[in-house]
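Structure (tokenized):
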């Protein structure tokens, strides 16, 4: 089945700011919010998660010029989701600060 977090959920609900990022054993929690109200966060729980790739996209002088550069929220540049089988998906999140790729089940969330 072809699905897209970005097209199905993030863009229609104006959830374009990555405002929470948490990695723990077997789970990744990502909070998305609108830039208009970053205090209203929708949490996406990715279960059975495994980080495949994580890379920062900033330079030392970015932090020297702007000390709060690494503080959330981050601007979401793109999100990709690809089914890889056995109820597992590969997700790629690209932001102005980091890019990370992980595999997990489709996330649990509540957009209300």
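Design, position by position:
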């Amino acid at each position: 089945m072809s699905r897209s977090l970005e097209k199905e959920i993030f863009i229609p609900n104006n959830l374009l700011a990555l405002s929470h990022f948490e990695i723990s054993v077997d789970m990744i929690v990502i909070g998305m919010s609108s830039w208009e109200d970053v205090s209203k966060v929708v949490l996406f729980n990715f279960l059975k998660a495994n980080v495949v790739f994580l890379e920062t996209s900033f330079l030392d002088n970015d932090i020297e010029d702007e000390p709060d550069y690494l503080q959330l929220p981050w601007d979401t540049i793109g999100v990709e989701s690809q089914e890889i089988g056995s109820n597992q998906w590969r997700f790629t999140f690209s932001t102005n600060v980091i890019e990370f790729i992980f595999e997990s089940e489709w996330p649990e969330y509540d957009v209300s």
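Reviewer-requested clarification: Residues 61 and 67 are 9 Å apart (CA to CA). The chain has a mean pLDDT of 89.
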